[in-house]
Design brief:
The chain has helices at residues 3-15, 18-24, 29-43, 59-90, 99-116, 132-140, 212-219, 237-245, 255-264, 292-308, and strands at residues 48-49, 56-57, 92-97, 120-123, 146-151, 166-181, 200-205, 228-234, 251-254, 267-269, 277-286. By secondary structure, it is of the alpha/beta class.
Length: 311
């Protein structure tokens, strides 16, 4: 049974005339009559009494009319609601980022910018537990509109976004800094490069995270070989920060995430500036994504950065 048959029947019940009902439905009378006949065959009952003038509904037709009006009304309401949902989705920008960037950058920088520009970001909080490659796949599979992430030439999996199909904005600079808890004198308990006979306990990142390849790349290029013994590995800088604060070892943590802790004096830098690692914070998008709200947000942000520099 087709929905338009129900609409035909409702029109016929209203006009009680095949020709006028056909005109209302914008079809020829033969076509209209055939569809009413198909409806009756489907229902296996006569719905129209064709022996009366004007036409009338049979008792079965009266019952069927109530259901037809209910069904078409529900369908119309459902369609309208679906369109509202579509418009709501189009008005949002699907956003993913790492746990660290959400805590140290999004809340302080991206969220206020969005509020000023009346853009609503639909934040996928599940992304806080993703591996590095999961973010890239999400953007490439069009499961998100924009991705906020760290960038460094040593992060190999992010090179998939070097294709012409994608573009990025450098929204900020960041620095990975080596940190250690302080002793009773306020001095770092562990200091780079460490000694071979007594390696420094190292709290690192898993290999498939954003930051581990960056740290590995940097340490390989130092004149003094760091003497480190891996104590544990984590995906999130917050976890490393917690272990460093408790004095378990040394770890590289984004500076934005550590500023408040450094100011309290419970944690200190564990090495000179040559042990600091520069990073970029980037937003990525697909050029093929034509979400109007995304385009609005992207152009506003690009203009702001070009005019004022990174956020």
């Amino acid at each position: 049974m087709e929905i338009r048959w129900l609409e035909d029947f409702i029109a016929l019940a209203k006009t009680r005339h095949f020709s006028r009902a056909a005109d209302d439905q914008n079809v020829t009378q033969p076509t209209f009559s055939r569809r009413i006949k198909l409806l009756e065959e489907e229902m296996r009952v006569t719905l129209i009494d064709r022996n009366t003038l004007p036409l009338s509904l049979t008792p079965a037709g009266e019952v069927f009319l109530q259901s037809a009006e209910l069904i078409t009304r529900q369908l119309r309401d459902t369609k309208e609601r679906c369109q509202e949902i579509r418009k709501e989705e189009e008005s949002q920008v699907r956003f993913v980022t790492t746990q660290t960037l959400f805590l140290s950058f999004y809340k302080e920088v991206i969220e206020p910018f969005c509020q000023d520009n009346e853009v609503e970001l639909d934040i996928n909080m599940k992304s806080s537990s993703w591996l590095g490659i999961d973010f890239i796949n999400s953007l490439m599979d069009q499961k998100c509109d924009i991705m906020l992430c760290y960038w460094h030439p040593a992060i190999n999996f992010i090179r998939a976004l070097d294709e012409d199909q994608y573009e990025h904005i450098v929204v900020a600079k960041e620095t990975l800094i080596p940190c250690s808890a302080t002793d009773a004198n306020g001095e770092p308990k562990f200091t780079l490069p460490g000694m071979k006979r007594k390696p420094l306990p190292y709290i690192g990142y898993y290999e498939n995270s954003f930051l581990q390849p960056v740290i590995h790349h940097h340490l390989q290029r130092q004149r003094d070989i760091p003497q480190l013994q891996t104590l544990s590995e984590n995906y999130h800088s917050v976890s490393i920060k917690a272990m460093v604060k408790e004095g378990y070892g040394i770890g590289w943590i984004p500076k934005r995430l550590m500023l408040d802790t450094l100011n309290y004096g419970k944690v200190a830098l564990a090495g000179e500036e040559n042990w600091h690692i520069p990073l970029e914070i980037r937003l990525y998008r697909s050029k093929l994504n034509q979400n109007p709200k995304l385009n609005q947000f992207w152009e506003s942000l690009k203009t702001h950065v070009q005019k004022n520099g990174p956020l």
